[in-house]
Design goal:
The complex is a heterodimer of chains A (1116) and B (493).
Chain A (H helix, E strand, L loop, with lengths): L17 H9 L8 E8 L1 H11 L3 E3 L2 H4 L5 E8 L1 H8 L5 E6 L2 E6 L9 E8 L10 E4 L4 E4 L5 E6 L4 E6 L6 E5 L7 E2 L6 H4 E3 L4 E3 L7 E5 H7 L4 H8 L3 E3 L15 E3 L23 E4 L2 E3 L1 H5 L6 E7 L2 H4 L10 E6 L5 E17 L8 H10 L8 H19 L14 E13 L3 E11 L8 E15 L3 E15 L7 H5 L30 H5 L4 E18 L4 E20 L9 H4 L9 E24 L2 E24 L14 E2 L5 E20 L3 E12 L8 E12 L12 E15 L10 E10 L2 E6 L10 E14 L4 E13 L2 E5 L8 E5 L2 E17 L3 E18 L2 H18 L24 E5 L1 E4 L6 E4 L5 E2 L7 E6 L4 E11 L2 E16 L1 H8 L10 H4 L27 E17 L2 H6 L4 E15 L11 E12 L1
Parallel strand pairs in A: 2-5, 6-12, 18-21
Antiparallel strand pairs in A: 1-3, 4-5, 6-9, 7-8, 7-10, 10-11, 13-14, 15-20, 16-17, 18-19, 20-21, 22-23, 22-53, 23-24, 24-25, 25-26, 26-27, 27-28, 28-29, 29-30, 30-31, 30-32, 32-33, 33-34, 34-35, 35-38, 36-37, 38-39, 39-42, 40-41, 42-43, 43-49, 44-48, 45-46, 46-47, 49-50, 50-51, 51-52, 52-53
Chain B lengths: L1 H17 L2 H5 L7 E2 H4 L3 H15 L13 H5 L12 H4 L6 H29 L8 H26 L12 E2 L11 E2 L1 H20 L7 H4 L1 H5 L18 H15 L2 H15 L5 H4 L9 H4 L12 H4 L14 E6 L3 H4 L9 H4 L6 H4 L2 E4 L2 E4 L12 E6 H12 L4 H14 L12 H15 L6 H8 L20 H6 L4
Antiparallel strand pairs in B: 2-3, 4-7, 5-6
Helix pairs in contact in B: 4-7, 4-8, 7-8, 8-9, 9-12, 12-13, 13-20, 20-21, 20-22, 22-23
The chains are: A mainly beta (1116), B mainly alpha (493).
């Protein structure tokens, strides 16, 4: 085509500093700018090129016009653009027009005068928004123009038939032949965003059509519709097989990192696995941020406004190139990249109001509590003297209740938290150099007073494109987090406090301990007291990462890409316990030496270094009906961590809390840990497509890791898949109703490694605590296992994707079977080996499940559109084989439970939880307890079923069996989106059906409730009181401890309204007037409603919260 | 420009390719030593060997369980009231969790040291002797072999029936390598043979290099302290399995096996130790046994001289608590004095030390918190504390007295007499008795001698007699039950 060479875009000198960019842009478009130019025997084109270099102007001209023009020589000093152009174009028959930064060169009107007519029009996008700056070129002739800021244009054209081409970046080019019209309005269709077609896997991109597995891609806008803060929470809506584990204890604590599993868990933990082995949470998927691996914390703290898209890869075909890191799935996150254009500011601000959600607490008020005490026999004793004292206690409390004392302790340490987040981003650039800088601050307080997680981030991206041959990119990210826990400590203390106690005395002073009970020893402390002291528990870290990458486009078909990323994270935690804390109010600390060691401070410093580099060569070609894409690459990765910590005790005063003021060290020597892990891998991927109907996909990876045994340093991983586009067959019967149908199957072997760096080694440690005969000795730390290797997961996936009715309804589903073998587990050794366990690959587990999603789009007129998405997932899990040590762990747990069963309630206050057991043939999420037949109405005692099926009143741990499973039958999400004119409404919810929960509230707060503390209302209402009562809970005067039984296991069906958001985009035309590009206001409510069939306390150590956000986004 | 970049790229790829993958994946831990690193020079071997001795001093083995703790409780040394937590030992109640913990910990503690020793012995195979000081090589290998034999022997003595009763008993693991595979069980006969072989080999390795055979050893100061002119590793031989200790061990195992030729072997090895003091007939002439006391105190050239009365009776700060000159091999752990919980000897005092003149009674027992305890590990402000005797020369005298009795009753009595003399007992012994009566006399002497040393149990077991005075003991208690996990996971049922 003639037009392809028409546009020449000016080049900017390479600048590596954003400041320069800002200045350059700021000085643009001034027509008064003086230019100096000297040309000798140059063609006009060369002159224009020089002018482009000197100024901000871009020339638009028709190259045939430039032919046959005389060469010119001239020299200008401090001339303005008009002077230069006037002189250059003298006698050329050409004329010019300046529109913003564009200079359009046209032949002089006279040549076309006779036939001239003018055509006008308006260019808009799908939504009817005008598009300024659209290039309009008259293809047959030498004419062109661009639209103004309202999308309007006018152009003189000759009579007769000709063709106009409308083009604009991000939109599909449109050519319209002009006959006799005088007005042509054009609607440009946005180029279907590349993300729909392309799947990014962290190493390279692949067209979605060539995938034989499936990948879920979530775009920024979609994410932002359901969450204003947490990306991980939002992803759950789009893929219900991506599960954030319920953290009932931690509630909405902003410092609680989520535990995530994809497609079921794959880890057995038990005796012998220490904490360091679980350092890398074995269920977590691998997170890839902009091409390099990061930990879950980085993603948790990442600003959602910076994200471009999130891709979730789950099956073998999609993840095989991650080899030993693939088995739990891979989540690829890409941040926004700079776009071509003038400097654009993008500002967003979110104000968040968070309020505690205490609806699931069902505690007694003051008078109810007193009634419970009365009924529960708290004041009755078989001794006359004791009863006299009891009466005094009761009377004192009754007096308080009558005086109206009814403290709602639950709300005492809480606040309505006001958080704010601001993000400012500047980006722009041209074809050669682009930049993007962003800064954000996120003040994120929790609902418990003084708990917070504040984040600060800076990011700077720069890219340089050399003649479309070479692309260099650099990205620096700095993330800083300051986190603090509430000085009030564990929230459960407030759930225990009795409502007939006051918080403050008559003079308004905080009460430290409540009046002692006449008939009981021990004192009850005000839980608010600790919070009034100087208690510190905070940690902060700063994480700096730099990633450099290059792309070399050797030929049209061959591309070489490399990336090198380094990161360093430095963190420290500090804690201080006031010497006035209640924990020091015991005899040990109040007399003699003890009084000098009250108060405690500890400090921990940690450094984590990461290095990640990879090289990828990609080749693709197409001949005839065949399409081939081949990729080969390799990567190296190193992780290093080191931490040291120490504690000091003995502080004189709580205000003198600096660690150096402590009296002495606690413990023998400073603690610390260190580890280094290296990974080396090579991979290849071959993707062959034929006629857009068949696709074959092969992947291979070989991984070597320093953590593995010397004898098993390298392990291979692979996948193979086949895809079939049924709709492209000639015999396709689906017709128009089914316009797309793709079936695919893939299988492969993936790996996972989750042991500590040195576990495979035979290591020695010097024993520094004891010397022997004038020297120190070294002792063997473990037997090591030089055969230790990856866990291997064989994963097979069947999937389909169908688009119905012109793609208004989309269906996608898959069925998978994942067999994990060689799970790393401790093996018990006979004592004669000298060590009790070693680690080996034993244990097998199977996850089987399906996922299904349906989405429907509808559109009515120009103003009204919407969509509904439903996603469902199901997973069943079965342990196929366990190690001998897990088997003995099971028995030990039962023995321990039998032993605990004899202990009194006060000794083990919340001890009756079902314990984890692993049995072959069962699920890892099974609930183990003794089967119960309920409460005998005649005597109020619980009747159990023994393993042999006999009835008994005696609880025995050996009768324990599976009585439920926390994994639901179905997990899903529903989200819907409505758009009317400038208004958008979005609702998203997720639900779980068919699982079970062990209701600890019933055990801890109703049956085993200690009447010294507050209890659940059901203590009074639902317990057996007299013969004939059909009650759920045993005799109210029976104070024996209830053990884990199926009576407390309840069916769990839950729905949570994750988000409701309403947003308004301000009319652009109106915005133009105040020189804004875009403005959008969003009101969003998160975690609004949580309804479940299990009535229990949620948020034990930290309450749950709801939040309301107000977000403003401005682009200018 | 593009060309330059291409060159850089190629260089990068080249560098990437030539780096050896395996080297890259070899990561060295910082807080621990990898075995390869430790054993890269002879110092590492020495440290590992010292580590084994430290392992022996743990409470799970000779720091408590196999000396003053479980072993002596089983030998009925102490008064343990019925409310006391250690009562199950007195009652031989092997089914209690307390006792199971004891056997478990002991088994694990002992075999842990064996695993450590096996790594050393295995690594030594690959060593080039020319890289070593020959002395050090012989010491490391000889001591490691001897210690492995010592430990297997003790496991066998506690957990297997007597050799004479069942030499085909096959539930004890004989570990010759550190491995994660199950270590095969061997018969008692097999294990004893191999222990003897290992000890003989150790003896050969040590004979020419051991400092214990030099003048230095004679002075107990240098037996347990480093002479300034000597390297720590080749000196302080009293704290290590030295040549004399290996010799004594051979006597111990032969008398344990108790087959016909073993008694003469045992006597032969015991005599090597005893002869250090000169001929027994010279020590105690026939004519006037009681008059020789002063003569015996004269200086002579024994490597293991008798302890002097002055040292036994010195003030508590200076007193020789364990009769150091007579000790052939002791462990060192100052921590034992904090651990020793004062097991009560009060009610047993009379029966353990019938003679009121016995130095071991007058100076060897002190009153502490209203109970009487042995001074051996009591927390005193004493200069020589923290030594745990493992083999002493009087054990050899007792063996000789036992063996020689069959052929020469009078001579046998002299061996016993010699010990008694140096413990302040001058009453003559009536040796015209039957063999069982004689053995009872030997055991009585042993009982007074080995307080807190864990040896007495083996005397009773070897002689196959009931524990005297114990109402709870039955003869089936002599075989301690092997821990369940050992049987179960070692497939030894």
């Amino acid at each position: 085509m003639v037009g392809t060479k028409l546009l020449r875009i000016m080049k900017l000198t390479i600048v590596l500093s954003i400041i320069f960019c800002l200045q350059a842009t700021a000085s643009g478009y001034s027509q008064d700018k003086k230019l100096s130019l000297e040309v000798k025997e140059s063609s006009l084109e060369k002159v224009f090129e020089k002018l482009e270099q000197l100024s901000e102007y871009r020339f638009i001209y028709f190259s045939p016009d430039m032919k046959n023009q005389a060469k010119l020589s001239a020299s200008y000093t401090d001339a303005d653009i008009h002077e230069i152009l006037d002189m250059c174009l003298e006698n050329t028959g050409l004329t010019y027009k300046i529109m913003d930064e564009h200079i359009i060169i046209n032949p002089q009107a006279s040549t076309l005068q006779d036939e001239k007519r003018t055509i006008r029009g308006n260019v808009t996008d799908d939504d009817g928004e005008p598009i300024p700056g659209v290039n309009i070129i008259l293809l047959e002739y030498n004419n062109g123009t661009i639209t103004d800021e309202n999308g309007n244009y006018s152009l003189s054209i000759p009579d007769g038939q000709c063709t106009l081409r409308f083009s604009f970046i991000g939109f599909v080019n449109q050519e319209i032949s002009v006959e006799r019209q005088t007005e042509i309005n054009v609607v440009l269709v946005a180029e279907v965003s590349q993300i729909d077609d392309v799947v990014v896997n962290g190493y390279f991109s692949k067209s979605k059509n060539s995938l034989t597995g499936n990948a879920i891609v979530v775009k920024a806008e979609e994410l932002q519709k359901v969450s204003s803060g947490n990306i991980l929470q939002a992803v759950q809506i789009f893929d219900p097989s991506f599960v954030i584990a319920e953290a009932n204890d931690m509630g909405s604590n902003p410092n609680n990192l989520p535990d995530i599993k994809m497609r079921g868990g794959s880890t057995l933990t038990g005796e012998g696995l220490d904490e360091s082995q679980l350092r890398n949470n074995p269920n977590l998927p691998t997170f890839i941020l902009d091409g390099y691996e990061v930990g879950v914390q980085v993603i948790y703290d990442l600003d959602i406004d910076r994200i471009e898209n999130v891709t979730i890869l789950k099956d073998a075909a999609a993840t095989a190139i991650y080899g030993s890191r693939a088995a739990n799935g891979v989540m690829v996150i890409q941040t926004k990249n700079p776009e071509i254009g003038e400097l654009k500011w993008d500002y967003s601000s979110t104000l968040t109001f968070t309020t505690p959600d205490l609806t699931d607490y069902n505690l007694c008020n003051a008078s109810e509590k007193l009634e419970a005490e009365q009924l529960g026999g708290y004041y009755s004793s078989s001794y006359y003297d004791a009863n006299l004292l009891n009466d005094i206690d009761y009377q004192n409390r009754l007096d308080e209740v009558r005086r109206g004392v009814d403290t709602y302790w639950l709300s005492q340490p809480l606040q309505t938290a006001f958080g704010q987040k601001h993000n400012l981003r500047a980006s722009g650039g041209d074809k050669a150099v682009r930049y993007d800088a962003s800064a954000s601050i996120d003040k994120n307080p929790g609902v418990m007073k003084d708990s917070k997680r504040d984040r600060f981030a800076l990011a700077f991206k720069l890219s340089y494109n050399l003649k479309d041959k070479f692309l260099f990119r650099n990205q620096i990210e700095i993330q800083k987090v300051n986190a603090a826990e509430s000085p009030y400590g564990n929230y459960s203390e407030f759930g225990l406090a009795n409502p007939y106690y006051r918080t403050h005395d008559e003079n308004g002073n905080l009460i430290t301990t409540f009046s002692e009970e006449a008939n009981r020893v021990g004192i009850v402390r005000n839980p608010l007291y600790e919070g009034s002291l100087n208690m510190v528990n905070e940690n902060e870290f700063i994480d700096v990462r730099n990633s450099t990458s290059f792309d070399y486009f050797a030929t049209e078909n061959l591309r070489i890409k490399g990336q090198f990323a380094i990161g360093e994270k430095r963190g420290s935690s500090n804690s201080f316990i006031s010497p006035f804390s209640a924990r020091y109010m015991t005899y040990d600390y109040t007399s003699g030496e003890g009084s000098t060691i009250r108060g405690e401070a500890s400090k921990m410093d940690q450094v984590i270094n990461t290095l990640d580099a990879n090289v990828v060569i990609q080749y693709n070609n197409q001949w005839g009906k065949s399409f081939l894409n081949a990729v080969a690459g390799g990567n190296i990765k190193e992780d290093k961590f080191r931490s040291t910590s120490f504690s000091v005790q003995g502080f004189a005063n709580e205000t003198l809390d600096y660690i150096s003021l402590g009296k002495e060290y606690m413990g023998d020597s400073p603690a610390g840990s260190e580890g280094k892990n290296r990974l080396l891998g090579g991979f290849g991927n071959l993707n062959y497509g034929f006629d857009n109907r068949y696709t074959i996909d092969l992947s291979y990876r070989i991984d070597g890791s320093s953590a593995f045994g010397n004898d098993k340093r390298y392990a291979p991983f692979w996948s193979t898949g086949f895809g079939y586009n049924l709709h492209n067959e000639k015999f396709w019967f689906g017709g128009k109703a089914v316009n797309y149908l793709r079936l695919a199957v893939n299988t492969g072997q993936l790996g996972k490694s989750n042991f500590s760096p040195y576990q495979s080694r035979q290591t020695y440690q010097y024993n520094m605590r004891q010397w022997y005969s004038y020297s120190i000795g070294a002792q063997l730390m473990g037997l090591g296992n030089s055969n230790l290797e990856w866990e291997k997961t064989q994963s097979t996936d069947f999937s389909f994707r169908a688009d119905l009715f012109n793609s208004t309804i989309k269906l996608q589903g898959n069925y998978y079977v994942k067999n994990t073998k060689g799970m790393v587990a401790p093996i018990t050794l006979p004592l004669s080996n000298g060590f009790t366990t070693y680690t080996d690959n034993i244990g097998e587990l199977q996850n089987v499940g399906y996922e299904l999603s349906i989405s429907g789009l509808f559109k009515k007129g120009r103003d009204f559109s919407g969509s509904v998405n439903v996603a469902l997932s199901h997973n069943t899990n079965e342990i196929k084989k366990i190690s001998n040590s897990l088997r003995s762990f099971n028995q030990k747990v039962k023995d321990q439970q039998n032993e605990d069963a004899g202990q009194s309630k006060t000794k083990v206050p919340f001890g009756s939880k079902p314990r984890i057991q692993y049995e072959e043939g069962q699920s890892i999420s099974a609930i183990y307890a003794v089967r119960s037949l309920g409460i005998n109405p005649m005597n109020g005692r619980e009747v159990f079923l023994t393993a042999d099926g006999d009835l008994t009143y005696n609880w025995n741990a050996n009768d324990i069996e599976v009585v439920g499973d926390t994994e639901p039958d179905l997990r899903g999400s529903i989200s819907s989106f409505l758009s009317y004119k400038n208004w958008d409404l979005n609702v998203a919810a997720f639900f779980e059906l068919g699982g079970q929960r062990y209701n600890s509230t019933l055990v801890d707060r109703v049956e085993n409730a200690n009447l010294r503390y507050n209890v659940d209302k059901r203590y009074v209402t639902d317990r057996w009181k007299e013969p004939g009562d059909i009650a759920q809970f045993k005799n109210i005067s029976d104070h024996s401890k209830s053990e884990a039984s199926s009576r407390f296991v309840q069916d769990y069906n839950m729905i949570q309204l994750q988000s409701v958001s309403l947003s308004y985009s301000v009319n652009r035309e109106w915005l133009k007037k105040i020189s804004f590009d875009r403005a959008r206001f969003t009101l969003m409510m998160n975690d609004l409603v949580h309804v479940s069939t299990v009535k229990r306390e949620r948020g034990i150590q930290y309450p749950y919260a709801r939040s309301v956000n107000l977000k403003v986004q401005l682009i200018f | 420009m593009i060309q330059k970049i291409t060159y850089c790229l190629m260089l990068f790829l080249f560098m990437f390719a030539v780096t050896s993958c395996d080297d890259y994946l070899d990561v060295e831990p910082m807080a621990q030593y990898e075995a390869d690193q430790l054993f890269s020079n002879s110092k590492g071997f020495e440290s590992a060997l010292i580590g084994c001795y430290i392992g022996l001093t743990q409470p799970s083995s000779y720091g408590m369980n196999l000396t003053y703790g479980g072993s002596d409780m089983l030998a009925d040394y102490y008064d343990i009231p019925s409310s006391h937590q250690y009562r199950p030992f007195l009652e031989y109640n092997y089914e209690t969790s307390l006792f199971k913990d004891f056997t478990n910990n002991t088994y694990l503690g002992v075999y842990n040291v064996i695993a450590n020793l096996n790594v050393i012995l295995d690594r030594l195979e690959d060593e080039d002797i020319n890289d070593w000081e020959p002395v050090n090589y012989n010491l490391v290998k000889g001591e490691a072999l001897a210690m492995r034999a010592y430990l297997h022997f003790d496991i066998l003595r506690y957990f297997a029936p007597r050799y004479q009763d069942d030499k085909d008993f096959k539930k004890i693991a004989f570990a010759t390598e550190a491995t994660t595979n199950i270590i095969p069980s061997q018969t008692t006969e097999y294990i004893v043979n191999h222990i003897i072989q290992d000890l003989e080999a150790a003896k050969l390795l040590l004979v020419d290099v051991d400092e214990c055979l030099t003048e230095n050893f004679r002075n107990w100061i240098y037996k347990f302290n480093q002479p300034s002119n000597l390297d720590y590793f080749t000196s302080t031989r009293g704290f290590r399995l030295n040549y004399l200790a290996v010799t004594a061990l051979l006597a111990r195992i032969h008398i344990y096996r108790g087959m016909d030729e073993d008694y003469s072997k045992a006597l032969q090895y015991a005599s090597i130790i005893i002869n250090e003091d000169g001929d027994i007939d010279e020590q105690i002439p026939d004519e006037d046994p009681s008059s020789l006391k002063s003569q015996l105190e004269d200086e002579h050239l024994s490597l293991l001289p008798w302890v002097k009365e002055a040292d036994i009776s010195a003030s508590l700060e200076k007193r020789d608590l364990i009769y150091m000159p007579e000790v052939i091999f002791a462990l060192y752990d100052i921590g034992i004095v904090d651990r020793f919980m004062g097991l009560n000897l009060s009610l047993k005092e009379e029966s353990i030390f019938p003679s009121a003149n016995d130095f071991r009674r007058t100076f060897g027992i002190i009153e502490e918190d209203n109970i009487k305890v042995s001074v051996k590990y009591a927390k005193l402000n004493n200069d020589h504390q923290g030594k745990i005797p493992m083999i002493r020369k009087t054990e050899m005298y007792l063996y000789a007295a036992e063996i020689v009795f069959d052929t020469d009753k009078k001579k046998a009595s002299k061996y016993l007499q010699a010990i008694r003399r140096y413990r302040g007992i001058n009453e003559p012994i009536n040796y015209e008795v039957t063999k069982p009566e004689w053995l009872e006399l030997v055991r009585e002497e042993a009982r007074a001698e080995f307080v807190g040393e864990g040896q007495m149990w083996h005397f009773y077991k070897r002689h196959n007699v009931a524990i005297p005075e114990s109402p709870f003991f039955t003869s089936d208690k002599y075989v301690l039950p092997i821990p369940v996990t050992e049987l179960q996971y070692g497939e030894r049922n």
